[in-house]
Design brief:
With 338 residues, this protein is mainly beta. The protein has helices spanning 32-37, 121-132, 150-159, 214-217, 249-255, and strands at residues 12-17, 23-29, 40-47, 65-68, 74-77, 87-97, 103-105, 112-115, 138-141, 143-148, 163-164, 167-168, 184-188, 208-213, 222-230, 238-245, 260-261, 269-272, 282-286, 290-295, 299-300, 304-308. It contains 5 helices and 22 strands. It has a 6-stranded mixed beta sheet with strand order 12-13-20-16-15-17. Belongs to the PHYHIP family.
Length: 338
């Protein structure tokens, strides 16, 4: 048996590093002899939940990707359109291409599992740039509001002393948003109807509405962050913003992960200080997107009022809880994994 035809050792000690939302670097151990003669790597990558133990039916046929042998660690990006926050499993074969075009291959390595990351700041900036194009003109508003069922407000009064405590953000919207499943807050709306300038009469979240003066949540002691832009197979789009009191835990979390917006000048939600004595601040919201505003702190019912809405609340199925983003929408998707 010639050196070229000698069996290749099985890749071992696989390590994954520098993982982002859509890329990673991979390395493994090979003998010096194999390193010198390997011409290609065969890489099999699949989502963990879809892993099939019999996926390597033909051990000498590359199942996913053939890459020319390069010094390790090797960067892997773009080939599979990796999704953020997704568990994957990967296995490696090394190979030597023969003069007749066939490959001499090693055994498949052990399967290694890893999880991709959240959107980085650069990805969120891409998403923010897209959201700016859909925001529309600014409209004045005066209150933030939160609709829920009577049971929710009864629980807040009975068990929480009237304090609406921050809850963990669900996984709705873009899968890579850094706040999903990590940031606590209380969601509010502020969109108004064109004809009245008031909150809409209907709500998919429940028949009772808590209203609070805009100034309680939006003022110079608050930092404003952009967190997401998405749709759910519909013509209208959602923008998720975070209002975090300066210096709080929520503010510290957002500062390193989300683009900060200027309170007085941005396309989504603005605060304008009074220009003259006796005047009130002016608050404005974007007209052509639905704003979901996460206040990263507790809010007491005594700061506002709970009232019955005048319209008919709609089915809960119309809410956005854990709703999945439309991956095919050209308006709200960016060039990295969904």
């Amino acid at each position: 048996m010639t050196a070229m035809n000698a069996p290749l050792s099985t890749p071992c000690n696989i390590k994954i590093c520098e993982v982002t939302c859509d890329s990673f670097r991979i390395m493994w151990d090979m003998t010096p002899e194999d390193s010198a003669r390997a011409t290609h790597y065969f890489i099999d990558l699949s989502r963990k939940e879809n892993r099939d133990p019999n996926r390597f039916k033909h051990r000498d046929v590359p199942t996913k990707l053939v890459a020319k042998a390069v010094p390790l660690p090797m960067a892997v990006r773009g080939h599979w359109f990796l999704s953020p926050r997704t568990e994957y499993c990967v296995s490696i074969q090394t190979a030597v291409k023969q003069p007749d075009g066939d490959y001499l291959v090693s055994e498949w390595s052990q399967v290694v599992e890893f999880c991709t990351g959240d959107y980085a700041m650069e990805h969120l900036q891409q998403l923010l740039d897209k959201a700016k194009g859909s925001a529309g003109r600014l409209l004045k508003f005066s209150v933030f509001y939160r609709n829920q069922h009577p049971e929710y407000f009864d629980f807040v009064r009975r068990e929480c002393g009237g304090l609406m405590r921050p809850a963990l953000k669900d996984n709705s919207g873009s899968h890579g948003s850094p706040i999903n499943g990590k940031l606590h807050g209380v969601f509010f709306s502020c969109n108004t109807e064109f004809d009245t300038g008031l909150p809409p009469k209907d709500s998919p979240y429940g028949p009772l509405r808590f209203q609070i003066s805009a100034g309680h949540l939006l003022n110079p002691n608050i930092c404003l962050y952009f967190a997401d832009f998405y749709c759910m197979y519909t013509a209208y789009h959602y923008v998720v913003l975070v209002l975090a009191p300066v210096g709080t835990e929520g503010d510290a979390f957002c500062r390193s992960r989300l683009p900060m917006l200027d309170l007085t000048s941005n396309p989504f939600l603005t605060y304008a200080a009074p220009q003259r004595q006796g005047e009130e601040p002016v608050y404005c919201h974007a007209s052509d997107v639905i704003l979901e505003v996460l206040f990263a702190g507790p809010v007491h019912l005594d700061q506002g009022a709970v009232q019955q809405i005048s319209g008919h609340h709609q089915l809960m199925s119309l809410t956005t809880a854990d709703a999945k983003k439309d991956p095919s929408c050209k308006v709200c998707n960016i060039s990295v994994g969904r």
